[in-house]
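User: Can you predict the 3D structure for this chain?
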Amino acid sequence: MGHVSPALDPYSSELPASGPYVTLGEGNTPTLPLERLAGELGIGQIAAKLESVNPTGAYSDRAAALTMTMARQQDYRGWIVTTSGNAGLSMAAYGARAGLPGVVLLEDPVPEEKVSACMGYSAEVQLVHGVIEGDESRSNLIWLYDEVRAAAERYNLFIATPNHLFNPEGIRALDTIGYEIAEQLPSATHVYVPTGSGALIVAIGRALAQRGLTPKLVAAQPAGCAPIARYLVDHVATPEIERCYSHTSALQQARPADGYAAADAVTASGGWGTMISDQAILTAQRRLVAAEGLFVEPAAAAGLAALMTDIAAERIDQDAHPVIVLTSAGWKDLANGTLDATPVDTIDVDDIPATVNDWAAMLDGTKQSTAPA
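Assistant: Here is the predicted structure, written as structure tokens:
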């Protein structure tokens, strides 16, 4: 694949594998100032790290690039991943790019958009029931992990699951998000990270610490599935809960694989966990669209929801400069989002003048029934 990876090549000396990398052009994503939102929320500056612009629409493309590079370099027959959705699509795409067959085990429920996108590649794709929801989810998850390990050993497959438990080297590609934040916005005071398994916030914290920067890390989790935030806030015994009651896909991790490491990273930074309702997450998704033109899936809006909650609680000073990590694109979870689902009207060509006139009249606060002559 002799092309340069914008994510991996600049930092190859700090990663567990060197190039040439399997790449689709991931990384080097922009950090965008959110000036209108900052004004509305009464804070000086807010920035967004746009991981939603990666090739398959998610930050997990970075991990997929490094994972498939190592799988190919180490002569694995193929790969296997268990995931809530985004990493499955990333691995399917990058596996195809690398010419490596693979198995995607999607932890149901998964948005149909992610399932359909995965099916467009040559990977074997299956939905696994009872891992996230249900009374047997704990034992089923352990069983799933055991089966993944057994299949990997039996068939010489690289385990591509994006956490430090299964794929500690491949997940190092997520450090590059922290490296880029350090270069693009060294003045950041806080980094708000939507948190499911905990792998992402661990990687970002590690990278920022390596660069000598000390912004506070904030783990943003839905209140109905917030094992890491509860561990940090309520000082419970473990960063695990029995069941997940949130409907925010991609953040439904009752027993996060990197839960302890995530809590340690947050604590070391002087940060905290913030719990927000599913409705607050959807409200934040709408605010990003309306104020800044940024359409992300609900899970990716959790960082903004947490920031809004912390601003309301006077936890964030007016002169702070927080960064929210927008992890994934809005098209990946349309059914659970907040876009207007009103059917689009069909009109004739000769209706266009009246339609545009009515629209313009609404902008002016008036209403006219016909277009001007």
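The two ends are 60 Å apart (CA to CA). Residues 119 and 125 are 7 Å apart (CA to CA).
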